[in-house]
Structure formats: structure tokens, C-alpha cells
Amino acid sequence: MVESSTNAVVAGIDLGGTKTTVVLCRRDGSIAAQATIATPAREGGAAMSAAASGLVKEMESSSGLHALAVGVGAAGVIDQKAGVVTAASASFKDWAGFRLAADLSARVGVGVVIDNDVNAFLRGEMAYGALIGCTDAVGIMLGTGVGGALALNGSVFAGPRGAAGEIGHTPGFGALPCSCGQQGHLETLASGRSIALRYTERSGRAANGAAQVADFARAGDPHALATFDAAGRALGQAIVTTATILDVQDVVVGGGVRGAWDLIEPPLAKMLEHNMPVSGYPLIVHPGSLGGSSAVLGSAAAAWESLAHSPELANTMKVGSSC
Ligand SMILES: [Zn+2]
Questions:
Q1: Strand partners for 137
Q2: Are 147 and 114 contained in the same domain?
Q3: Within a domain: residue 16?
Q4: Is residue 322 part of a domain?
Q5: What is the tens place of the pLDDT at every residue in 245-278?
Q6: Residues 6 or more apart whose Cβ sits within 8 Å of residue 69
Q7: Is residue 39 very low, low, confident or very high in pLDDT (cuts 50, 70, 90)?
Q8: Which of 15, 16, 53, 168 is deepest in the core (most CB within 10 A)?
């Protein structure tokens, strides 16, 4: 086996709205170097790409390692094949339409693959986290919003417009306004921002994010408990629907609200218990195990996959079989 291993690394980049994290990562997922800088989101795509590539080069020179390829998980809707950001939130300047893969590749001098950050999260959990060995899975990020991703037959399935698995914007959960402009989406009950809003509506008491609502719930506040109950049941319903249609058994949940797993999991489990899939195989919902590193490690995994056809590295590649 050509285990050029200990010194062979790729770079994984998690390019978010406020910060950009880079890891130099070995094939086994171990991290040789890691650093984080502020994302210059208001300065445009070229500035974000320059900042990320600058950090990669700095880490290469201080570690003496050279990244063989680069994977990026970025906020926004990403056309993975074209290597282009197709849509982005208003907090980014000149991001939609930016040819990120080509620009970054010219700066770092190796191949670059890009994907959205939720797909990167799922890929990370499958490669190195809670879903090692899984070939089919749903990934859900409960953060400021609710992001979703799908993996089928061992690959992340992005869909023709890069929007497959967008479970946060599925309807049927009441009539509250969603961040996307529509109403009644899962996100209106289960995102971190929504949990704080729903709690304040119920209690008349302000809450500084879902983590604080979780503290209130653990102290016995009935409004906070009811808010998490509604979030967990809605999440369970969306999971049952998605998994039933796709015959997917494994689901991984990450994002900031993952920190309230003790409160989300009981109502979620109850919903799953009462809605067994027709396959007869119970759904398994895994809390993510990589914490804030899932997207950056998933981006590194994508970079390793991009090298899979490289003959001298082929022996170090391993494709997951089944959970
Ligand atoms: Zn929505």
C-alpha cells in the first residue's frame, strides 16, 4: 500500500458568513494543521477566495506540508460541477455568480472542488463521524436556519439545481413566516432562530438564542419545554416523510441546536416510534459527532475523493459500503 500518508494532506475549507476555517487533513481524517480567520464577506468573492488561499499557503509554509487538492464547503447555493456559487444571502457581496473553484485553483495551484456547507457537513459525518460506513443518509443542520442534504448510493446527491434535500423549506408545519419568504416550513419551528422566536411568543420572555431556551427548559420552564417539543415533533415528521420516500434509514443532525439534543431527541423519537417506515426497518437518527468540524472535514473528504483516480493515491482510497 502506498501510504504516502503521514505527509500526504489535502486542504479542507469551511467558508462561512463570519469565519473561514482551513484544515490540512490526512486521508484518515486526522488534522495536521488548523486555523480560522474572519471571512471578508462584505468585500466580495475575490477577497474571500484570496483570504482562504492566503491562509492555506501560510499553513503550508509553517507546517512544511503541501495540499494535494482543496475542498471547500461554502455558504449559499453551489453548482458543484461548474464550480460556481449560484445564489447567496444578502450578507455576502458579489458572491452569487462567483467562479470560486477556478479562482481558488488559480491561487493555490492545485485542483479545487466546492460544495455547499450542508453537503459538506453530511460528507464529513459519513467519512469521519457518526455515519462511517453509511451509503444512504439524510443530513440535517439545525443552525440559524435549517439546512438539509442527501447521500444516495455512497454519493452526496445535490440535484440538478443543487437544492436536493432542502428539508428546512418543506411545507406543512403551520403558517408562520419563513426566512425564505414562504410560510409554514419546517425551519419556522426547528431552527435556532425560530426556537428563540417561538419561545418568546409563548412566554412573553426574551431569549438570546436556542441555547438559552434550552437552559430555561432544563430548569423546568414549561414554555421552553413546549417549544422544544414542537421543534422535535416537526423535525421527526419531516424526517419520516423524507426517509419513507427515499428508503433511507440513517439520519444525522448537526448545527448549533445539536447542543440541545437532550431536549430535541425525546419528541423526535416519539414521532419516529409512531411512524414506522413501510420497509419495517426503524429509522436511526444520529447526533452529529464532529461538532463544528463536520463541514471542514467533509470538504477535506471531497478533496480526497477528487484525487481518487490519481494512481499513486488510489490505494489509500476507501469507499464506504454499508452502515
Ligand atoms: Zn422556507
A1: 151, 250
A2: no
A3: yes
A4: no
A5: 999 999 999 999 999 999 999 999 999 999 988 8
A6: 10, 11, 110, 111, 112, 113, 303, 304, 306, 307
A7: very high
A8: 15
Distance 144 CA to ligand 1 centre (A): 12
Q: Is residue 187 part of a domain?
A: yes
Buried/exposed code over 214-246 (b: 16+ C-beta within 10 A; e: otherwise): bebbeeebebbbebbbbbbbbbbbbbbebbeee
Domain count, the chain: 2
Judge contact between 27 and 51, C-beta under 8 A: no
Q: What is the mean pLDDT of the chain?
A: 92
- Give the domain range for residue 19: 5-122+292-316
pLDDT at position 80: 87
Tell me the C-alpha to C-alpha distance, in Å, between residue 246 and each of 40, 87, 101, 276, 287. Answer: 39, 27, 31, 14, 20
Other CB atoms within 10 Å distance of the CB of residue 157: 14
* CA of 132 relative to ligand 1 center, distance in Å: 30
Residue 170 Cα to ligand 1 middle (Å): 7
Please tell me whether residues 271 and 307 are part of one structural domain: no
CA of 16 to the centre of ligand 1 (A): 20
Output the CA 128–ligand 1 centroid distance in Å: 30
CB 121 within 8 Å of CB 138 = no
244 and 137 in a common domain: yes
CA 15/CA 34 separation, integer angstroms: 14
**Quick one: how far is CA 136 from the chain centroid?**
16
| CA of 141 relative to ligand 1 center, distance in Å | 14
Mean pLDDT of 33-59: 97
Q: Report CA 119 to chain centroid distance, whole Å.
A: 5
Q: How far is CA 106 from CA 41, 94, 196, 223, 315, in A?
A: 20, 19, 43, 53, 28
What separation in Å is there between the alpha carbon of 17 and the centre of ligand 1?
Answer: 19
Do 142 and 282 fall into the same domain?
Answer: yes
The predicted-structure confidence for 160-219, as pLDDT tens digits, reads as follows 877 889 999 999 999 999 988 999 999 999 999 999 999 999 999 999 999 999 999 999
User: pLDDT exceeding 90 applies to what percent of the chain?
Assistant: 81
